[in-house]
Amino acid sequence: MTIAESVTTGLTDRWRGARSPRDGAEWLVRAQEVSDILAVDAVERDRANATPHAEVRLLKEAGLVTLLGPRAHGGAEQTWDTAYKVIRIVARGDGSIGQVLGYHYLWAWAARLVATDDQIAAVEELYTSGNLLFGGAVNPRDSDLTVREDGDELVFSGRKSFSTGGQISDLTVLEGVLEGTETHVFAIVPTDQPGIVFAGDWDNLGQRLTESGSVEIRDVRVDWASAAGFVDRVFQPLTYNTLNVPTIQLVFANFYLGIAEGALETASAYSRTSTRAWPYGGDDKEHASEEWYLLEGYGVLQSKLWADEALLDAAGAEISAVLHAQREELTERRRGEIAVRIAAGKLRIVDDGLEVATKVFELTGARATANSVGLDIFWRNLRTHSLHDPIAYKKREVGEYVLLNQIPQPSWYT
């Protein structure tokens, strides 16, 4: 039995035939059950760096993949407010799988963001009824995926440096530029086809199980009618279309918080059982848990994460309200205000999370640096993904709002 297979063996029978969670609170309990399973061997699975097929099966069997899907097709039809908290909880147990789930939620919602009503209905029925996981070959800094017209079809060709979800996805969101124009085209296609070839080259410092390596797209054909948001080959723009960036940026912030919470939980458990009191300070304690500097250290770190949680929950409630409202109602100003709040939350959890993931080594002691303890996984995961886009620009966005009353203009990263 492989390490990855051990994640689900004998542990998910509890959900077969069981009543599905009825509300957001019960879904958070379900997410915690998943997180607890993932945490047991997260370090070993990270070291093995194997494709996480079993972990995805766990998400599917738990019902988390269809959390946002319509009830009519077997989904839970929960809100984004709940989805953000589910991402955070799963990331406490395994940051990589929290990211995979968060990206899936964004791509599962992509049809609602940009597609026509008929396209939305078709996509949501497809992925919800099939319990399918999304990946995305979407990286706006890569301009080497092109789209050409061939009669009633579009043909995607080229390469993307990053494609989170990769081989573990059932559906892939493609994005490219229509030849001879500056028009970006999104389409959803089955992952398992000859024209999608993953390089298997994701071997980074952290988030190692996200399958985020490069992909080659070889003449993948899509009906023009499936181009998201196009009517008679003309895109129909709405301000709502631009919510994709703040939505995914808050996904980032929530799995960052989950990773930091996992670091603090793991470290505090270690301190309670294994850290030894320091006998040379003149204020000798019998147990490490009585050491004033450890109590102070854990108190400061937990206070920061509680503050981050409050900020992210407030931002999550704000964007969830507009994501579930009528698309035509969203104004540019409201969109910008929400984006600023999310930028503020992201920059705070990046700073605080990295502090937590570093400081825990001082609070646990030298023996906690053993590879078998695995405290390094939290810093590696958070450090890796927090470089996704420069945090300095998030700080500037907040500063421009405060000083100049300017909202960020929608782009691929704001």
Which runs of at least 5 residues are low in confidence (pLDDT < 50)?
Answer: none
CATH fold descriptor of the largest domain: Butyryl-CoA Dehydrogenase, subunit A, domain 3
Determine the strand fraction and express it as a percent band. Answer: 5-15%
Structural class by SSE content: alpha+beta
**Element-level helix/strand string:** HHHHHHEEEEEEEEEHHHHH
CATH architecture of the largest domain: Up-down Bundle
The termini sit apart by: 44 Å
| Contiguous helical run count | 11
Say which CATH homologous superfamily of the largest domain is assigned.
Answer: Butyryl-CoA Dehydrogenase, subunit A, domain 3
The value of Rg in angstroms is: 22 Å
Provide the helix percentage. 40-55%
The overall pLDDT, averaged over residues, is 94
The total domain count is 3
Number of strands: 9
By CATH reckoning, the class of the largest domain would read: Mainly Alpha
By oligomeric state, this entry counts as: single chain
Which sheet architecture does the biggest sheet show?
A: 7 strands, mixed
Shape: globular
Explain this structure.
- The protein has 414 residues and is of the alpha+beta class.
- The chain folds into three domains: 5-133, Acyl-CoA dehydrogenase/oxidase, N-terminal domain (Butyryl-Coa Dehydrogenase, subunit A, domain 1), CATH 1.10.540; 136-235, Beta Barrel (Butyryl-CoA Dehydrogenase, subunit A, domain 2); 239-404, Butyryl-CoA Dehydrogenase, subunit A, domain 3 (Up-down Bundle), CATH 1.20.140.10.
- It is 49% helix and 12% strand.
- The protein contains eleven helices and nine strands.
- It has helices at residues 24-40, 42-48, 53-62, 80-93, 95-114, 117-130, 244-273, 292-323, 332-364, 376-385, 391-404; strands at residues 134-137, 145-150, 153-160, 171-178, 184-190, 196-198, 215-223, 230-231, 234-235.
- Strands 1, 2, 3, 4, 5, 6 and 7 form a seven-stranded mixed sheet that branches.
- Strand 4 and strand 5 form a beta hairpin.
- Helix 1 (24-40) packs antiparallel against helix 3 and helix 4 (80-93) runs antiparallel to helix 5 (95-114).
- The longest helix is centred in the last third of the chain and has 33 residues, at 332-364.
- It is globular and about 80 Å long.
- It starts with 23 loop residues before the first helix and ends in a 10-residue tail after the last helix.
- 45% of the residues are buried.
- The mean pLDDT is 94.
